[in-house]
Amino acid sequence: MLRQLMRLLTSLWRPFGGRGGDAAGGGGGGDGATGREGRDGLLWYRDLGRCAGGEFSMAVVQANQVLEDQSQIESGPFGTFIGVYDGHGGPDAARYVCDHLFSRFREISSGPQGVTSDGIRRAFLATEESFITLVSQLWNTQPDIATTGCCCLVGVICQRTLYVANLGDSRAVLGKKVGNTGEIAAISLSSDHNANVEAVRQELKAHHPNDPEIVVLKHGVWRIKGIIQVSRSIGDAYMKYAQYNREPINSKFRIPEPMNMPILTANPSITTHHLQPSDSFLIFASDGLWEHLSDQKAVEIVHSHPRAGSAKRLIKAALHEAARKREMRYSDLKRIDKKVRRHFHDDITVIVIFLNHDLMVKGSTQGPQLSVRSALDH
């Protein structure tokens, strides 16, 4: 019942805009503000559109039986809001975040203080609180919702300040011009909250000094309590509250030791960056992209090609690399259907923002108002 209701609500947010020819090169873009929408098998994309921060390219490829990634771009007088939500354990948490996080942000940022790091943090925590309330309401009829969660990567461009908030291991990368050399440098704007990162393991051990198995190495991969890799998320109630870590959830999620405090957190890491004229573009992507492409390789691909189709191009580069690792042709990988495809790569979401500094100087009210959400499923 919940999935049907969320699917109905989500359908109201489907992307809008017509179809038409690509807009290539550095200027101009697509069909109106939203750009041209298209599909290529399990790949959905918008080649180029306009937003208050400049122009954008957007794409997602499905690998799971049900697409677990969600994403959105919202643009208006406040600036531009970019969200990439990488779900796990099912699509429910990612869909919920895509339905509610931006509205929480708008409620808070419409106050006298405007857009602030604290306001973005409050929006994250309010969304977490309301999702956990939903878990509680559905516990007797749909307990598996307690084992769904979502990595959340959000960027907010307000005038000439960029805020990046992150839970989990999606990543934001800046493409920065290197003087007058014509070269581009990759600048990481977020940190991965993944147990395979030494600093994250140390953080977990510091917060749980009496638990020698807070992180466990299984089959060459570090996992928290031997179960999950990410240390921060929205949802994953079973790793935060003892009342949800019990039957009837699947035994693989149950922890035998008493849970005296939350193991995961929904408190995001937030950075601010004052945008400079040499800052060319931003890449926001779920970890499925970064499993196959380095930060530098990704910015070079964007920099060396026309703007139109940049997000789609990055996904295809990642798929080519996934195929190469399995010693198969890209054309053969494309023929593999969803669910089986998950053995070769994850769902991958990419949003590229091409920064228009003149537009940002004039003020956000000069840019188009926009609300675009990636395809719900294929």
Q: Can you tell me about this structure?
A:
The radius of gyration is 20 Å and the shape is globular. The chain has one domain (about 1-180, about 230-375): PPM-type phosphatase domain (Phosphatase 2c, domain 1, 4-Layer Sandwich). It has about 375 residues and is of the alpha+beta class. The chain has 9 helices and 16 strands. The two termini are about 20 Å apart. The strands form 3 sheets. Strands 1-2-3-15-14-8-9 form a 7-stranded antiparallel β-sheet. Strands 4, 5, 6, 7, 12, 13 and 16 form a 7-stranded antiparallel β-sheet that branches. It has a two-stranded antiparallel sheet with strand order 10-11. It has helices spanning about 1-10, 90-110, 115-140, 200-205, 285-290, 295-305, 310-325, 330-335, 355-360; strands at about 35-40, 45-50, 55-60, 70-75, 80-90, 150-160, 160-165, 170-180, 185-190, 215-220, 220-225, 235, 270-275, 280-285, 350-355, 370-375.
Task: Tell me the radius of gyration.
Answer: 20 Å
Unreliable stretches (pLDDT < 50, length at least 5) are: 1-30
Which CATH architecture would you pick? 4-Layer Sandwich
- Name the average pLDDT: 89
Measured between the Cα atoms of the first and last residue, the distance is 20 Å
Domain PPM-type phosphatase: 55-355
Family: Belongs to the PP2C family.
GO molecular function: metal ion binding; protein serine/threonine phosphatase activity
GO biological process, one term: regulation of intracellular signal transduction
